[in-house]
Amino acid sequence: MHSIIHKVDVVSEVRHLVVLGSVDSDWSKIGLSKIEHDFVTSKLAIGELSIHINQYSRSIFIECLSEESTKSNNLEKARERGAKLVKQFNEAKIEEVELISLSSGDLSLYVAEGMALANYQFLKYFSTPEKKLNSLKAIFVNAESSVIHNMNAVVSGTLYARDFVNEPLSYLTAMQFSEDMLALGKEAGFKVEVLHKKQIESLKMGGLLAVNQGALEPPTFNILTYKPENHINSKPFVLVGKGIVYDTGGLSLKPTPNSMDMMKCDMGGGASVLGVLYAIAKAKFPVHVVGLIPATENRPGGNAYAPGDVIHMMDNTSVEVLNTDAEGRLVMADALCYAKKYNPELVIDFATLTGAAVRAIGKYGIVAMGNTDIRVQNELRESGDFTYERLAMMPFWQEYSELLKSDIADMTNLGPAEAGQITAGKFLEHFTDYPWIHLDIAGPAFLSSDDHYRLKGGTGTGVRLLFDYLLKKCVNAE
Questions:
Q1: d(Cα 53, Cα 36) in Å, to the nearest integer?
Q2: How far are the Cα atoms of 206, 211, 271, 437 from residue 250, in angstroms, in the given order?
């Protein structure tokens, strides 16, 4: 577990210090000398909001956070400031820092969150990783132990999700993904059941089996269950994550570069579901949650399924395949069918599903749609705003379903170019008969460059959002 944030009650006189405040704060409270105090005052007078004082035995970083238009923006600016500070700490080979706040609205925990997320590294494949290792090891804040424990849990879940997205196919096959799920489940305290090809065939999961036909490795269907004795919900929350460990597009081969190159990230939804289960189990939430992750490669080899094929899904719906690169919805549909057995309170799916979602809103949020009532949507949007994993709700009018009609089967797996993110959602909706919301994370799940604490590569998008949503469910039930 990445327990980088620690509780402190008394300010250290030797540890490197980050002091949060505003331009009007009383800086004399932190024991500055007159020369240091005058230096800070002069810098603030010319508009500098980040001031470094070198006391030789330690450094003091004074950070003025301006008031933003919303609470959500205040928290995000604090995280971003934390990410900026981490670069300075690692350049200076600082191992430990302590945060204190002179402001009434203490944002130190969120600055620490930004630091912890921005300090992430994926060094597994370097020959000498120790030479690249960040120096920062510990962040100390004055906060409740339970709050710090939850923060470490959700940061760890997010960073594990990043690890899985960053793993190449040369390691992370569907079978290996399942092995790693078993290991994390054992560590954190949730159950993992892995269904293999014969069991998948017995369940008649035609979508998962069709997508797997061109692959060398067999598929898996992974059932993650966290059900503590004190769970508050009579019906489980079910999370479904797309687990395409690599997507070539199948016979509808993707063009390259810039499209297939990063397709190791196509299991980002599955990684996020795994990250959520890990985080809530570590935090010991009193809530029953099930995760369903269908996993396979999508390759053009062997007996690969082809455009024009008709396949039958788990519920016997016949689907005319118009494009084998619209494979994510096929494996997700089988998982959504399987979710019916739980009579769920709510099903939320995560998938790097469509390029249309990226074109619609870019990397700045998550495309969302579904059949849930407005109360559920508002609760998820509130958590999205709080974590800055914001939801962009799409219209979900019935007319979009008309775009999936087939001449020879119940439906097609692809609509026209227009509103592609919505027709993909409408395809998934066909396989639900319970409250459900679809989160297309194709934009923010994998980045080509750093975005503050969301670093280049896998971001773990969705873990913090769902952790906060489920935390509020637990708190409101008390």
A1: 7
A2: 16, 8, 22, 27
3-state SS, residue 177: helix
Roughly how many angstroms between the first and final C-alpha of the chain, as a whole number?
Answer: 27
Please say whether the beta carbons of 215 and 299 come within 8 A.
Answer: yes
**CA–CA separation, 366 vs 444, rounded Å?**
7
d(CA 223, CA 134): 35
pLDDT digits (tens, 9 = 90+) for 32-71: 999 999 999 999 999 999 999 999 999 999 999 988 989 9
3-state DSSP assignment of residue 122: coil
* Residue reference for tokens 């600055």: 111
Q: Of 246, 258, 445, nearest to 328 (Cα)? A: 246
pLDDT tens digits for range 436-447? 999 999 999 999
Q: Which residues are catalytic?
A: 254, 329
Decide the pairing of beta strands 346-351 and 243-247.
Answer: unpaired
C-alpha count within 13 angstroms, C-beta hemisphere, residue 13:
2
pLDDT tens digits along 368-398:
999 999 999 999 999 999 999 999 999 999 9
Contact between 276 and 157 (Cβ < 8 Å): yes
pTM, 2 dp = 0.97
Residue 154 lies in a domain: no
The tokens describing 295, both together, are 């996993």
Phi, psi of 249 (to 5 degrees): 95, -5
CATH code of 63's domain: 3.40.220.10
3-state secondary structure (DSSP) of residue 167? coil
The whole-angstrom separation of Cα 171 and Cα 269 is: 18
Beta strands in 301-434 (DSSP E): 310-312, 318-320, 346-351, 366-370, 391-393, 411-412
User: Which neighbouring-strand residues pair with 447?
Assistant: 457
354 and 321 part of one domain: yes
* Pair 92, 172 in one domain: no
Please give the Cα distance from 71 to 77 (Å, whole number). Answer: 10
Query: Maximum Cα–Cα distance for the chain, whole Å?
Result: 83
- From CA 26, how far away is CA 4, in angstroms rounded? 29
Which phi and psi (to 5°) does residue 63 adopt? -125, 115
User: Taking the CB of residue 431, how many other CB atoms lie within 10 A of it?
Assistant: 22
Whether 73 and 206 map to the same domain: the answer is no
CB neighbours (10 Å) of residue 288? 20
Do 118 and 198 share a domain, yes or no? no
- Identify whether residues 99 and 31 lie together within a single domain: yes
Phi, psi values for residue 138, rounded to 5°: -150, 140
**Burial of residue 71, with CB atoms counted within 10 A of its CB: 0-12 exposed, 13-18 middle, 19 or more buried:** exposed
CA distances (Å), 345 to each of 232, 353, 380, 432, in order?
Answer: 12, 24, 14, 13
pLDDT digits (tens, 9 = 90+) for 96-122: 999 999 987 899 999 999 999 999 999
- Classified as helix, coil or strand, 440 is strand
